[in-house]
Every structure is written in C-alpha cells, then in structure tokens.
Design goal:
Number of helices: 12
Number of strands: 5
Radius of gyration: 20 Å
Order of helices and strands: HHHEEHHEHHHHHEEHH
CATH architecture: 3-Layer(aba) Sandwich
Helix content: 55-70%
Strand order of the largest sheet: 1-3-2-4-5
Distance between the termini: 88 Å
CATH class: Alpha Beta
Shape: globular
Structural class: alpha+beta
C-alpha cells in the first residue's frame, strides 16, 4: 500500500507542469473567435500552417514533395492509434518514401498522460522520435488507460533505453513542455483544431481517422492539384520558338 502511494505521489509530481495549461488551452480555445477555415485554403494559410513550433517540426519525407500532410494527434486517442497502425504504414510506403508526401506530426494532447508521452518521444531525439510514437500507439492500451499510466510509460521508456533518472528529467524539462503546449495552443486557436486526429492536406482540413480507401483519394486529389502550377501553365501557353 505504501509503495502504491509513493508511486501515485511520484506520478503526480512529474505531471504537475502538465496540468497547468490544460484548462487554458481548451477552455480558451472554446472562447476563441477564430473559426476553422473551410474549402480550398489560400497560400497564406498554407504558409502559416508550415510555421513550426519552438523546437521545430518532427517530419518525414521530402520537404519539396508536392503534398504536405500535417496531423494533429493525441497519443491517448484511440482513433489516432488506429490511423497510425493501419493507415500510416500505407501512406509511408506509397507516398512518403516515394517523395510525394511530406508528413508532419504535431502534438495535440488531450490529457496529462498524453502530454507526458509526447515529451518522452521528443526526449528520445529526432532520429528515434517516430520509433517511440509507433511503439506508444501500438502499445496504447498498456499505458494510456491503466491504473498506473506514468509507471507504465516509464516501463516503455526503459525498454527504449531511458534510465529512471533520464525519464524523470525529461518529464520536468520545461523547454519541451513549452513546445508541446505552444504547438497544441496554436493548433486550437489559429487553425481551429478541436478533435484528433485532424489533418491538413496542402492546407485543406480533414477531421477524423479515415480508412485508407477514403484517405488515399484525398492525397491523389492534392497531387493532381499540384500537377499543373500557374508557372507551368504559363510556360506551356507561351512556348519558346526555335
């Protein structure tokens, strides 16, 4: 019993930073006058979307790809886990690895344990970030919805090479915490993100974890939209005469 109390107290101490901003983020977002943008976004909006958080974006693929997919997700969201485990592999194989899609995952935690999980992934470093994300989504039921989520998250961290000291330091890293907070706050207030997963495909907002049969056509539509740029159309209209 004493051991369980100690674990609970330790977990509470680790996530104390997390609790401070949740009310501000979501109560503040509900009171915001910003509205989600619908329809075909303009270039300014797309450029605004591409502004990274304080520590930069965690991205996969070619930044010069014709299509950019930005996903706002929570690591305790089962719909996000479903997308990551069943749709993302196809997106990676067919579009990210072939240079057609530039993919960015952004933090949008709905609860303290999701925030802690994102912080752990960032602490793992750029090269290991997506590896941790995959493990956390695939093993979501083993840590996100248990009686001792922080201890279970710590166990996953140990499997990934984290010492207990390094894990605790990560959970207290205000620089990483501020990054997660800022990315989520901006997603809610500036881009109207209200649920997870929310995607922006070349700026067009798509909500919900669509199956591959519905998600892929959206990627193809975006690729087709970039196939003929105004510059290319202009050059075709006025070909140089030999």
């Amino acid at each position: 019993m004493n051991q369980n109390k100690a674990i609970m107290a330790g977990a509470a101490a680790i996530v104390v930073l997390v609790l401070g901003y949740l009310g501000y983020l979501f109560l503040g977002a509900n009171g915001s006058t910003s509205e989600p943008l619908a329809g075909t976004p303009d270039t300014a909006f797309e450029k605004e979307l591409l502004v990274p958080g304080p520590l930069g974006d965690m991205a996969q693929g070619d930044p010069m790809a014709p299509v950019t997919v930005i996903e706002y997700a929570s690591l305790t969201c089962n719909h996000c886990a479903d997308f990551n485990n069943n749709v993302k592999p196809k997106l990676t194989e067919q579009y990210i690895e072939t240079g057609k899609v530039y993919y960015i995952l952004r933090d949008f935690p709905f609860d303290p344990i999701a925030t802690a999980a994102f912080m752990l992934s960032h602490c793992a470093g750029e090269e290991r970030y997506y590896g941790f994300i995959d493990v956390l989504f695939k093993q979501q039921t083993q840590w996100a919805f248990t009686q001792t989520p922080m201890e279970d998250l710590k166990a996953i961290a140990r499997q990934g090479g984290f010492s207990e000291e390094r894990f605790d330091q990560c959970m207290k890293d205000e620089r990483i915490f501020d990054h997660v907070k800022d990315v989520a706050t901006r997603g809610a207030k500036t881009f109207g993100v209200r649920s997870t997963p929310t995607f922006f495909i070349n700026g067009e907002k798509v909500e919900g974890a669509l199956p591959w049969a519905e998600f892929e056509p959206l990627i193809e539509k975006a690729i087709e939209g970039k196939a003929i740029t105004p510059e290319a159309a202009g050059s075709d209209a006025t070909p140089e005469q030999e």
